[in-house]
Sequence to fold (681 residues):
Amino acid sequence: MELLAPAGNTESLVAALRCGADAVYIGGKSFSARQNASNFDTAEIKEAARLCHRYGAALHIAVNTVITDSQTDDFIREIRKYAEFSPDAFIVQDPGAAYIIRNTVPDIPLHASTQMTVHTPGGAEFAKGLGFSRVVISREASRQMISEITSAGLETEIFVHGALCMSVSGQCYMSAMIGSRSANRGLCAQSCRLPFSPVGHPDEHCLSLKDLSLIGHIGEIKALGVTSLKIEGRMKRPEYVAAAVTAYRTAIDGGSPDTEMLKAVFSRNGFTDGYFTGNRKNMFGMRDRDDVMSSSEVLPDLRQLYRKERKVSVLDFDVTVRKDSPVTITASDSDGFSCTVTGAEPEAAVNRAVTAEDISRQLTKLGDTIYSCGRNSINAGEGLSVPASSLNQLRREAVEKLYSMREERKPYQTYSTLSSGKNAEEKRKPCTSPPAVRVRLEKASAVISHDLTAAEYIILPLREIISADIPGTVKEKIIAEPPRFIYDEEKLKKELKYILDHGFRHLMCSNAAYLKTGRELGFVLHGDFGLNVTNRFSAEELAGYGLKDITLSFELKSVQAGNISCSSETGIIAYGKVPLMLTANCPVRNSVGCGRCRHSITDRTGRRFRVMCSEGYAEIFNSEAIYLADKPEAYEKLDFITLFFTDESEKEIKKIFTDYAEGSQAAPQGITRGLYFRGIK
Fold:
């Protein structure tokens, strides 16, 4: 299995390589999901590629943020620049970014970032169809889920150590909505580490998970068929990288890792393996004073782990020393690289002739190199003298030549023509004027109790459709909303087949897995906000999978959303308390206990965020509802808008629907405009 290490700067990169990483992932100054790390400028990325390839390690470059249309040219320039350094893969979240890379640098491998929320075989197969050769599986996946995904026919990568986000990666909008810092654009403000409590306790941190550690499960993971073990930590210091890589290298190689050192360098009251094992008790924790003190105590020792070069290859020398011929040394390493260097002709010995032992002694001085000494074959004539300094110089020349050979990679061929999305404006269907109004309801009973005949579609949770008796006259308007996190894909397929057989033809696709499943079953497909569509390339790529329409990301400004053109209809959530987090661990249940709950948590400012548990996961909703009825210019260029109802009363639903259907002159108190006008930083 590949051991993949993080590096937020050059020192961390060196630490990773010298401690045994098989591959390293880094980010540039732009388009990386860890924009708050030091990251690498262009010259540093070139040097990083050189160093990785010297060690025989792979370099993966993270370009795993979503991009907007206005960033397209900058993104293409960045990709072309990186391609010159021959990295081994790009890590990507945005389907549009993947399309751009495929058309700009078609030969480079693409790895689907964990931000793509791949956690099922269907999601992996979707990624494969987009041209990805590897998927980084969601951290929330159990061993059983991982096992199923590894059978999908592409490489798999899982996180084995490091920070756990409370939200499923790619589905966290809390930092953006609260502070205009988008996790999907690399600027997460780590809102989940701030105080939140379901009982109003000011010092409780009910959204803060312990760090992940699967070091005790390496054998199991190998048996599952996982390709790569990934350590989180591009924002961590080099000593952390050294400790984690050393421990996991030891475990992979069958040794006994120093887990106490791992805990000392960084933890939040210990570690958890809860998602992998399915035992989700005791997964929450905060970093306390003891954790910080332990870290400071072990840092000096950890620096010693990467002070010296790591030996990664064995070097053989063949030496010829003959009268009237230049001294010749051929150096061959165990990875198949070989070179020959020549020096001056040997002189006749005056006092003492050079011996094979003398020559060998100089050749074995490989201390600060990546080489350990192997076989020395020396053919030396009698009565000849070769200065030790000459032999040392030839040895250094041979090593440098081998380094150059190991580092050399043929640059990728790049292209400058893009085809998909280029003429999207011409392909776009005319906008409905005014935009059609859709409603999302939480209960099927609301379909009967409200007069929603004017709504274009009514979105209902799948569980409600299965359990309720919905009139046949309404079925054509119903869009089924399946779970946003899928634990049992086969069971879910049966449920979808059931509702299809009972006359429900429309399916909301909140995860890429539904694009494949829904199309195979014959549903009319609708793209949800969880697909994180922020540009026309993504919109067009997903439209190609049969989406009738796409709800664009609510992290876009309204003007950006209105300018996205594609062959599917596009719209936005124009009203509602939108989901800020999708979590596989209920913060209320962990704190005070609950069953199927409708509770809330409170932040340090007193704002209350509703929490709803269902289908094995929880959603945390914004404290304020987006309201745009008095701002129709925000959606006038779109085909539809969705009113996302959650805990509103019957009276409120009727009033809000009327506001949007007929127009409103003023906004009520306690609402938000979301990011549609202020945007993100």
Observations:
- The longest strand covers residues 371-380.
- The chain is about 30% helix and 20% strand.
